[in-house]
């Protein structure tokens, strides 16, 4: 299994010590506010060197302290033991892999691929279009370093183009149009291909768990063509609109992603339970998609997500979880987590940032 242990220092409310993670399944059981989610967050940071809950490093530091550090030890497929450490001190963040400085977080891709299930995932079904674009980009970024480069380049070009629009330096727009289109077209092609593949997984899973057939993801790119010349003509036709709005109104940052059934928007008429199920199944599909593309199994981090389902759907979800290298789940004390455990499952009780078996 990937994670062998995790050493914690001044992180959130957690105790400064090392937690043994040598099990295929690890459950964290405790009341709200005791540190269950903090442990999952620490694991996530040890994988990707960023938090899924905040962009502020200072929020991660234990109250009354001035720095924090995390060091995760894990075992790769080759059976080689590897360490990733993340620390923040005096306003500077440091990331190391096996003692060597990591300059770019994309170097961590595929080290410990984690798929996170959490309450905020509901935004993927009912939130702004930006959240659904983020999800697809995250799926691709889990294994495709080149895609990360395309996204970064596109965002920088977009940022520069928008500055020009705000400053009304319109004579400079032409120098950004072609680069915007070239990078954006690569993003559009990869998103389209990924969503096509994703639908073969998602639609089937949604039917198996909910009983509703035909729910799928619909992708509507801002640019309807894959021809550079045609896209340039379209971008130029929207230039006056860009000038009025002071921002770039076309491109992958404006792509729309919907959930549809029989050609109609499904979320607008779906129940709260059906919407939550979309978010949960998206994560299951993300893990399955990653495994099918790479041939590797991810680590699953599940933060109280089963709480929101009725008993029958809980059973269906747990039965349809994809093959994983390791599974971490959080539960409240009254939950029937005993039903889901295996003989080798490690169970930690969490209280006041400390843990005990």
List the helices and strands and how they pair.
Layout: E1 3-9, E2 18-20, E3 25-29, H1 36-48, E4 67-75, E5 81-89, E6 92-97, E7 100-101, E8 114-117, H2 123-126, H3 129-141, H4 145-166, H5 174-210, E9 216-220, H6 228-237, H7 239-245, E10 256-261, E11 264-265, H8 272-294, E12 299-303, H9 311-319, E13 326-331, E14 346-351, E15 354-356
Helix pairs in contact: 3-5, 4-5, 5-6, 5-8
Compose a concise summary of this entry.
With 357 residues, the protein is α/β, with parallel strands linked by helices. The chain has helices at 36-48, 123-126, 129-141, 145-166, 174-210, 228-237, 239-245, 272-294, 311-319; strands at residues 3-9, 18-20, 25-29, 67-75, 81-89, 92-97, 100-101, 114-117, 216-220, 256-261, 264-265, 299-303, 326-331, 346-351, 354-356.
Relevant terms:
alpha/beta, six-stranded antiparallel sheet, 15 strands, six-stranded mixed sheet, 22% strand, 9 helices, 357 residues
Can you walk through the features of this model?
This protein has 357 residues and is α/β, with parallel strands linked by helices. It is built from 9 helices and 15 strands. It has helices at 36-48, 123-126, 129-141, 145-166, 174-210, 228-237, 239-245, 272-294, 311-319; strands spanning 3-9, 18-20, 25-29, 67-75, 81-89, 92-97, 100-101, 114-117, 216-220, 256-261, 264-265, 299-303, 326-331, 346-351, 354-356. The strands form 3 sheets. Strands 2-1-4-5-6-7 form a 6-stranded antiparallel beta sheet, with helices on one face. Strands 8-12-13-3-14-15 form a 6-stranded mixed beta sheet, sandwiched between helices. Strand 5 and strand 6 form a beta hairpin. Helix 3 (129-141) crosses helix 5 (174-210) and helix 5 packs across helix 6 (228-237). The longest helix is centred in the middle third of the chain and has 37 residues, at 174-210. The mean pLDDT is 93.
């Amino acid at each position: 299994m990937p994670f062998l242990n995790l050493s914690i220092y001044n992180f959130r409310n957690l105790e400064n010590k090392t937690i043994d993670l040598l099990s295929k399944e690890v459950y964290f059981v405790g009341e709200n506010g005791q540190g269950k989610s903090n442990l999952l967050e620490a694991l996530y940071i040890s994988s990707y060197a960023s938090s899924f809950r905040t962009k502020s490093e200072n929020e991660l530091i234990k109250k009354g302290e001035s720095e924090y550090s995390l060091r995760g030890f894990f075992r790769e497929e080759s059976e080689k033991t590897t360490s990733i450490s993340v620390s923040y001190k005096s306003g500077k963040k440091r990331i190391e892999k096996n003692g060597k400085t990591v300059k770019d977080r994309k170097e961590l891709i595929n080290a410990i691929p984690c798929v996170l299930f959490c309450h905020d995932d509901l935004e993927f079904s009912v939130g702004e279009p930006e959240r659904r674009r983020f999800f697809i980009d995250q799926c691709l970024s889990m294994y495709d370093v080149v895609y990360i480069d395309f996204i970064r380049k596109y965002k920088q070009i977009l940022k520069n183009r928008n500055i020009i629009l705000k400053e009304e330096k319109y004579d400079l727009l032409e120098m950004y149009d072609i680069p915007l289109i070239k990078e954006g077209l690569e993003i559009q092609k990869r998103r389209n291909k990924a969503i096509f593949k994703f639908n073969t997984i998602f639609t089937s899973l949604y039917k198996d768990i909910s009983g509703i057939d035909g729910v799928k993801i619909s992708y509507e790119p801002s640019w309807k063509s894959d021809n550079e010349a045609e896209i340039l003509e379209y971008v130029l036709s929207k230039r006056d609109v860009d000038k009025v709005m002071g921002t770039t109104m076309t491109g992958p940052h404006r792509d729309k992603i919907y959930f549809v059934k029989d050609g109609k928007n499904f979320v607008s008429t779906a129940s709260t339970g059906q919407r939550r199920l979309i978010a949960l199944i998206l994560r299951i599909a993300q893990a399955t998609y990653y495994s099918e593309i790479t041939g590797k199994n991810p680590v699953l981090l599940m933060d109280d997500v089963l709480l929101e389902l009725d008993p029958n759907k809980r059973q269906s979800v747990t039965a349809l979880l994809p093959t994983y290298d390791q599974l971490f789940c959080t539960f409240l004390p009254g939950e029937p987590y005993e039903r889901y455990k295996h003989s080798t499952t490690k169970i930690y009780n969490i209280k006041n940032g400390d843990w005990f078996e």
